[in-house]
Amino acid sequence: MKAPSFAYARPRSLAEVFDLLEAHGDGAKILAGGQSLLATLNMRLSAPDVLVDITGVPGLSGIAVEGGTLRIGALTTHAEIERSPEVARHAPLLAQAVPHIAHVAIRNVGTFGGSVALADPAAEYPACALALEATLVVAGRQGERRIAAGDFFRGLYDTALAAGEIVVAGEFPLRAGYRAAFLELARRHGDYAIVGLAAHAKLDGGRLSDVRLAFLGAGDRPMLAVEAARAVDGKAPAPAVVKAAQDALARDLDPPADLYTSSAAKLHLARVLTGRVLAALIA
Ligand code: FAD
């Protein structure tokens, strides 16, 4: 199918973006890498009046360490994140997760901001952002707001972005002494995950603390497994501890079934990933 007809604008500043969003309201759609949006247009799942292409707006891309955080601009591509030495050093969880996003051609164009704004519950960045206690920086006519990842992802393709706002960056706190592990199970490499797990924890003398286990594909948004994390916190992940964490998942998650995988099967996969990730965190 072909996309319905739409107008196209390529603003050169954030002020122009906000003008366009104000003028067109719900009829305007931000275009970043287009790797999700263009498919929804072609399938006629979306019919905006105007696409507001933000790729000409300066200052929205790049990776920098500043003020105790790793800042990733909204227009930074998946490939740039994958190749970044700063990301590998300061947010290795992201470095582990990016190769699971789609395929090289899509990673060359798709953006960090597009992925978090889309808020697909099976996407990698939202779960990583939750595990790493990241902050999403959004901007609108009134200025910038900083929203904790835990508050930003509200439900299926739903975020805390207000009308007229766009994502401008993500900020990831710099932390020493932490370990990261990212694993997912997909039907084929490059497909969206059936279930995935982004894990981050402090490792000290073989014991894990400040454990954060964020699942993708296991709810209507990235899901933090609080009970499972509590079962491991302050302990070495010996077999009995791992089993307690796996059992606790039934209290944390109630994964929705999809066309291929039942809720029970997803919970089973979440248990499997938890065992593997806890082993990886201390390896
Ligand atoms: P676009 O497609 O341009 O926009 C996506 C949505 O976000 C639109 O609603 C747009 O209006 C909005 N938007 C974009 N940028 C902003 C912003 N800065 N502020 C506010 N709103 C904004 N993704 C995964 O995470 N994991 C996968 O495994 C995966 N597999 C894929 C497989 C295929 C075959 C394809 C085609 C895509 C896949 N994707 C996957 C999606 C891909 O990662 C996209 O790049 C990403 O979801 C959206 O980024 P984009 O820059 O292309 O955004």
Give a quick precis of the structure.
The chain contains twelve helices and 14 strands. By secondary structure, the chain is α+β, with helices and mostly antiparallel strands.
What does this structure look like?
The chain has 12 helices and 14 strands. It is an alpha+beta fold and 283 residues long. The chain has helices spanning 14-24, 37-42, 78-83, 85-90, 92-97, 104-107, 112-118, 124-131, 149-152, 226-232, 239-252, 263-282; strands spanning 7-9, 28-31, 50-53, 63-66, 69-73, 135-140, 143-148, 153-155, 158-159, 166-173, 178-185, 195-204, 207-216, 223-224. Helix 10 (226-232) packs antiparallel against helix 11 and helix 11 runs antiparallel to helix 12 (263-282). The strands form 4 sheets. The protein has a 5-stranded antiparallel β-sheet. Flavin-adenine dinucleotide binds next to strand 2, helix 2, helix 7 and strand 10.
Instruction: Give the names of the bound compounds.
Output: flavin-adenine dinucleotide
Sheet with the most strands: spatial strand order: 4-5-10-6-7
Tell me what portion of residues adopts beta-strand conformation.
Answer: 25-35%
Distance between the termini: 49 Å
User: How confident is the prediction overall: mean pLDDT?
Assistant: 97
Fold topology:
Layout: E1 7-9, H1 14-24, E2 28-31, H2 37-42, E3 50-53, E4 63-66, E5 69-73, H3 78-83, H4 85-90, H5 92-97, H6 104-107, H7 112-118, H8 124-131, E6 135-140, E7 143-148, H9 149-152, E8 153-155, E9 158-159, E10 166-173, E11 178-185, E12 195-204, E13 207-216, E14 223-224, H10 226-232, H11 239-252, H12 263-282
Helix pairs in contact: 10-11, 11-12
